[in-house]
Write a structure and sequence with these properties.
This protein is of the alpha/beta class. Helix content is 39%, strand content 15%. It has helices at residues 3-6, 40-47, 60-63, 67-74, 79-88, 126-145, 176-186, 205-217, 219-222, 238-252, 266-270, 285-291, 299-314; strands at residues 11-15, 28-32, 50-53, 91-95, 148-154, 157-158, 190-193, 199-201, 203-204, 225-229, 235-237, 261-264. Strands 3-4-5-10 form a four-stranded parallel β-sheet, with helices on both faces. Strand 4 (91-95), helix 6 and strand 5 (148-154) form a beta-alpha-beta unit. Helix 2 runs parallel beside helix 5, helix 4 packs parallel to helix 6 and helix 7 crosses helix 10 (238-252). The longest helix has 20 residues, at 126-145. The protein is globular, with a radius of gyration of 20 Å. The structure holds uridine-5'-diphosphate-glucuronic acid. Uridine-5'-diphosphate-glucuronic acid (UGA) binds at residues 58, 60, 97-99, 127, 154-156, 175-176, 179, 191-193, 196, 198, 200, 238, 276. The site of uridine-5'-diphosphate-glucuronic acid has 20 residues, from helix 7 and strand 7.
Length: 318
């Protein structure tokens, strides 16, 4: 259940396109604009009690190919928003990222874990560094200038309508789910970066939205906090995710061909400067404690729904 169903708030949604936000509600206003548009942040912060900041360039293929834009979008464009929220006394709920933990090898804890990024030459880390600096700016405004804030660190959220299919409704390499779905729809080999040996924990978009709504309902508990939102029970090797998606696809489309998987070196797939996090497991005890929340959706529950969604939206194009 989303924000409109679960709260009485009026929502002003700002985006460059609304193809994916089809819901109708008298409490929803759509503003089609870019965050860089002059006056936009001023009007958004003037009119709202709370601002949920979600804009980002967040596909790893961009981090080493367009690093200047990645730093602009994930840091510079948002500096004025932090400042305006401080001056106007607005609650800033900012979506950061699990990537700030970098290559930290253990369960990632908001208040204790080191943030371990690679060398500057490994441009994969431009995104994490930009996101980390913005977190530090928000924190500093909170500690020294009275900003009410909550920083959310999402850990690999997946679900229907995620990203795009390259060549149909977007360009460039999306995140792994959409890459694999494209291969399934086009009956091409699924590409396993460095053998698909890295692991991720995936949280369903439904569980994630539930957590965000609980944050909005609990300002007194969540202000001044950094909160991981992820599902440590859903850890999987990327090569196994490929197998799970193939099975889910074949269950819906039994006549389709057998699928191949192909290993590709990281720098061949993403370009020079790519690097990877081998494991990424969130410590979600703080989210459980503050929000009374626990993610519940397993791969078996989410993958068939995701596969059907991509098939309905794209099958005729493939
Ligand atoms: C993502 C992005 O940086 C952000 O969207 C986000 O902030 C963060 O993680 C998150 O969601 O928590 P990453 O998990 O590396 O980073 O993104 P994916 O593109 O989904 O890649 C996951 C893994 O799959 C990586 O090891 C990648 O090399 C691999 N992969 C990707 C493949 O094996 N094949 C592909 O076709 C695509």
């Amino acid at each position: 259940m989303g924000l409109l169903e679960e709260t009485e708030y009026k929502v002003r949604a700002v985006d460059k396109t609304f193809e994916k936000l089809t819901i109708a509600s008298p409490r929803l206003e759509r503003v089609q604009a870019s965050i860089q548009e002059p006056g936009l942040l001023d009007s958004v912060t003037a009119a709202s009690e709370a601002v949920i900041s979600t804009t980002a360039l967040c596909t790893p293929a961009l981090y080493n190919k367009r690093p200047v834009e990645v730093i602009e979008a994930n840091f510079l464009d948002l500096v004025p928003l932090v400042d305006l929220c401080t001056r106007r006394g607005r609650w800033l709920i900012h979506f950061s990222t699990s990537e700030v933990y970098g290559t930290y090898p253990d369960r990632m804890n908001e208040d204790q874990s080191q943030l371990v990024l690679g060398p500057v030459q490994k441009e994969r880390w431009t995104y994490a560094a930009a996101k980390q600096l913005l977190e530090r700016l928000i924190w500093a405004h909170g500690q020294h200038r009275g900003l009410a804030f909550t920083i959310v660190r999402p850990f690999n959220v997946i679900g229907p309508r995620m990203d795009y299919i390259e060549g149909i409704d977007g360009e460039g390499t999306p995140r792994v789910l959409a890459c694999f779905m494209r291969s399934l729809l086009y009956q091409e080999p699924l590409q396993l970066v460095d053998g698909g040996r890295s692991r991720r924990t995936f949280v369903s978009v439904g569980d994630f939205v539930d957590a965000v709504v609980r944050i909005i309902k609990r300002p007194e508990r969540c202000q001044g906090e950094i909160i991981n939102i992820g599902n440590p029970s859903n850890e999987i090797r990327i090569s196994d995710l490929a197998d799970e998606l193939i099975s889910a696809y074949q269950a819906v489309c039994p006549d389709d061909v057998r699928f191949e998987k192909r290993t590709v070196p990281g720098e061949a797939f993403y370009g020079p400067g790519y690097d990877d996090t081998r494991r990424r497991i969130p410590d979600i005890r703080k989210a459980e404690r503050l929000l009374g929340w626990k993610p519940t959706t397993s791969f078996d529950e989410m993958l068939p729904i995701i596969v059907r969604d991509y098939m309905e939206r794209y099958k005729q194009n493939s």
